[in-house]
Amino acid sequence: MIIIWNDRELKSLSHPALITKYKTGCESGDWLYHSEARAKWNSTLEMKSFIICVVICLGTLMTTLFWAKLDRWEELHQLPRMRRQPMRPSQYCKGCQKLIQNTTDIYSKRWQRLRGYYTQFRLKMQNEGIDVEDAIISKTNFPVGSNITEKLMRNPLFNKTWDTCSVVGNGGILFDSHCGKKIDSADFVIRCNLPPLHGTFGKHVGTKSSFVTANPSILRKIQKENYSEEIMEKMKPYDDAIIALPDQNPLVFETISILRELKSPSRPVFLNPKYMSKLTDFWRSRGVKAARLSSGLFMVSMALELCRNVHVYGFWPFSIHPFGLYFLPHHYYDDTLPRKFHKMPVEFDLLLQLHTQGVIRIQLGACRE
Known about the structure:
This protein is of the alpha/beta class and about 375 residues long. Helix content is about 40%, strand content about 10%.
């Protein structure tokens, strides 16, 4: 089929390559246009339009994903925002006003290590059967033939002592503390529950790790479908640290198998429930009536058996800074509130007594560079 176009109609065509000029019996100014060529041009134009739309959509999607990823990266690598204006007494956390005043009074005095109190406290622990060499399950302290014996390694704490230890909690008091260098200067650094150390966190909490606890509640937060990949990524900041796990838990068994199969440098071990039970009885006899002791209190206790000088960071239990009286998040990395298993103020009060006696040294506020 051939359509005859006059000059005026032909000017609307935008692609002269598809127009063919022929000599016909018509007037010399007439043009012939093949309908097949017209259809081909329309099809080509539609295809180009489609490709352009796809490219634009993909570009928009990739840009959106890039900025979302960047925002997430910045969120993970920066400290949380906090109010720093002083708070009125009516805004103080319930029951902590007296302890804040007591703490500031004690902290204003010069701290002095008292060897006699330190030795006396360790003897009290030993008299109640608490021995750090039983803290880790090994073939020497666990019955042969149990379902975890085959997964046991040699106790890495056996016959070991250090001069200085940093026990690092995750409290918001570490926010903007600049304590990273001081924490890392210790011979042995103990941390609780696989805390984040990346980005700007390291400046305030350090990056060195020697012993890290990992409760099942932390492991359960990792996505199950990518568990192997994510648990390896989770362990990277701790390098060859001892990773202390509770025993006889299916997820714990899986975690240890993955770490060994994928040749992680970290050294997973099982915490001994008998040792934990003895420590629980020891602290309950001294006023801690919580359903469960915090990981931090367990680690301070263990450090007192391993180290001659124990420095404690990140254990302030309240949402108000003791000196600046400004708001603090619950953790230095987020403001997720804890379950009511622990009695943090009671535990802190006991640790404060040990600080007063020169047994341990608690760091509150910023560290001097």
